[in-house]
Amino acid sequence: MYLSFKLFKFLFCTLLLINSTLCYDPSQRRLHNSVIIEDRLLIFSGYGYADTLTYSFDLFYLDLSKSFGNDNLTWTLIPKGSVPIYTYDSTAVLSLDNSTIFLIGGFMRNKNTLDYDYSNLVYSYNYPASTWSTPVLSGDVVPPRQGMRGVIDNSGIIYMFGGTNITNLTTFEGTIHNDMNTFNTVSNTWSTLNIPGNLPSICYEYTVNILPNGIIVYIGGVESAKFTLVNMNQIKLFDTHKLEWSRMNTIGDEIDPRIYFSSVLTPDGNIIIFGGCTKNRSSVSPKLAILDTNKNPFEWSIPSNSEANSPPSVWGHTANLYYDYMIITFGFEIDTKSYSPSSQVHLYNIKSNEWVTTFSAPDNKSTTPSTDDPIITSSHEGRPLKALEIVLWIGLGATFLVSCILITKIIVRRIRQRPSIILEISGSDQKL
Ligand SMILES: *[C@@H]1O[C@H](CO)[C@@H](O)[C@H](O)[C@H]1NC(C)=O
Ligand SMILES: *[C@@H]1O[C@H](CO)[C@@H](O)[C@H](O)[C@H]1NC(C)=O
Ligand SMILES: *[C@@H]1O[C@H](CO)[C@@H](O)[C@H](O)[C@H]1NC(C)=O
Ligand SMILES: *[C@@H]1O[C@H](CO)[C@@H](O)[C@H](O)[C@H]1NC(C)=O
Ligand SMILES: *[C@@H]1O[C@H](CO)[C@@H](O)[C@H](O)[C@H]1NC(C)=O
Ligand SMILES: *[C@@H]1O[C@H](CO)[C@@H](O)[C@H](O)[C@H]1NC(C)=O
User: For 385, phi and psi rounded to 5 degrees?
Assistant: First the structure.
């Protein structure tokens, strides 16, 4: 069914003479990055998979200014936005003015040699210019880190807690940290904070959200070299004003501990977590839960209809909030042991608290296309076609259709012989 949809899309896109950057078919992936700028959901990096594990450097987006069904997506490639490094399990944070994405850490490989490359640990993408660069940072030395997530406060400082420093890339041995690193995106300064007391345990593969009052909330993850998972009732809080740690025991429903899950913060103060897995990559329950941060202590609850029509159990996906929708992209499905199809996202409506299949674009906002937008070429808009032109176009269309069918046949025949770069056969994420 997936293949036939791909075929349909291929024919559809080719027949409509659509620019090849539209209808882009990205490779499947996990532990990628997703950022929303204006009305685009941008996706990049991650542990990629096509027919085999594959390196991907593509930057592509889903247009959120138009409505769509969740299982027949049209992605658009930004050709100039090709990522200068291959990385997964990294963090990507948007600047306050929505102009720049900072891509930090992860398992990094050189784009040309494909060898591990930790020579630059911070990359930045200028969205209006569509250019990547390596910012020159002052201050403390930037440590190599994987499995940490960053969050930006309202003065432009990105906070990154803990994570791993994998030093043997064969055995995935290394150290786990509990330090707090900050990156001031205004002054381009890196600092490793010296916090005197009350430090939390070492931790990685948690989720992070910052509340409007400047308190950062850390949930879940791994908290020891023996792979002990963090109790979901024990929340770590970091006060960005006082630069102090504290802990909170939450109340409410029982939530399985987990790693490789996602979280979003809603405008009314709920943190919605979704998905993830255990150490042995088995599924967790419930899939979706809500932490109400308006209560003191915070309270977990499981929305009554959040299991109905819910997506498969997935880990290594991402979640972004856009108006009423939590949008889940990519990841690895536990039951089928396969990557989530790239033609599909999952949509959770945070107002009605239910999984939905249609994304309705917010209709009261302006949709001015940027200059970078690929254009659908059609020279006949707004004027009637002359008879001769119509005959010519029908002829051209018919020839085109026949070519497409032939090309499709060839592609279908070759689909299993497609050469691709082998990444790691196994075990690459079985770290520590
Ligand atoms: C794709 O989704 C749109 C909007 O929901 C729908 O109109 C269209 O029929 C779908 N196409 C396919 C091939 O499923
Ligand atoms: C950045 O984007 C967010 C979310 O869309 C918006 O609320 C905010 O006003 C934007 N900031 C600027 C400076 O454009
Ligand atoms: C990473 O780990 C290695 C070995 O434990 C250590 O020598 C190095 O200082 C660590 N680097 C950082 C930035 O933590
Ligand atoms: C990584 O570990 C393996 C197995 O213990 C060892 O053979 C190899 O030398 C180590 N590599 C490094 C860079 O320490
Ligand atoms: C995976 O771990 C869970 C507990 O975390 C256990 O219940 C389950 O049986 C394990 N599954 C496998 C296949 O080992
Ligand atoms: C549409 O406008 C209403 C009223 O101004 C506002 O409350 C709502 O958030 C807007 N919705 C979107 C999607 O922009």
Answer: -80, 140
Q: Is the CB of 357 under 6 A from ligand 1?
A: no
Say if residue 97's pLDDT is above 50. yes
Q: In one letter, which amino acid is 431?
A: K
β pairing state of 270-274 and 288-292: antiparallel
Residue whose CA lies nearest to ligand 4 atom number 5: 171
pTM of the model: 0.82
Angle CA 209–210–211, to nearest 5: 120
The closest alpha carbon to 333, from 256, 273, 260, 401, belongs to 260
pLDDT tens sequence across 132-181: 999 999 999 999 999 999 999 999 999 999 999 998 888 889 999 999 99
* Nearest CA, atom 13, ligand 6: 362
Q: Look at residue 292 and tell me whether its pLDDT is greater than 70.
A: yes
Residue 356 has pLDDT above 70, yes or no: yes
Q: Which atom of ligand 6 lies nearest, measured to the CA of 362?
A: 13
Please, which residues have CB within 8 angstroms of residue 392's CB and are 6 or more apart in sequence? Answer: none
**Pocket residues: Cβ below 6 A from ligand 3:** 143-144, 165, 167, 175
Distances (CA, A) of 234 to 247, 298, 299, 303: 7, 10, 11, 21
Tell me which amino acid residue 418 is: R
Residue for token pair 């006060």: 239
Q: How far apart (Å, rounded) are the C-alpha atoms in residues 165 and 20?
A: 40
pLDDT of residue 394: 65
- Using a 6 Å cutoff on CB, does residue 294 contact ligand 5? no
User: Does ligand 5 have an atom closer than 6 angstroms to the CB of 165?
Assistant: no
pLDDT for 20: 53
3-state DSSP assignment of residue 239: strand
Tokens 């809500």 belong to which residue?
A: 290
Ligand 4 contact, 116 CB (< 6 A): no
Q: Is the pLDDT of residue 403 over 90?
A: no
CB 48 within 8 A of CB 83: no
How far is it, in rounded angstroms, from Cα 432 to Cα 202?
13
Question: Per residue in 311-323, pLDDT tens?
Answer: 999 999 999 999 9
**Structural domain spans, the chain:** 1-30+386-427, 31-384
In this structure, what token pair is assigned to residue 410? 């060839």
Cβ-contact 93, 135 below 8 angstroms: no
CATH class, 31-384 region: mainly beta
Our answer on whether the CB atom of 357 is closer than 6 Å to any ligand 5 atom is no
Tokens of 264: 């979003």
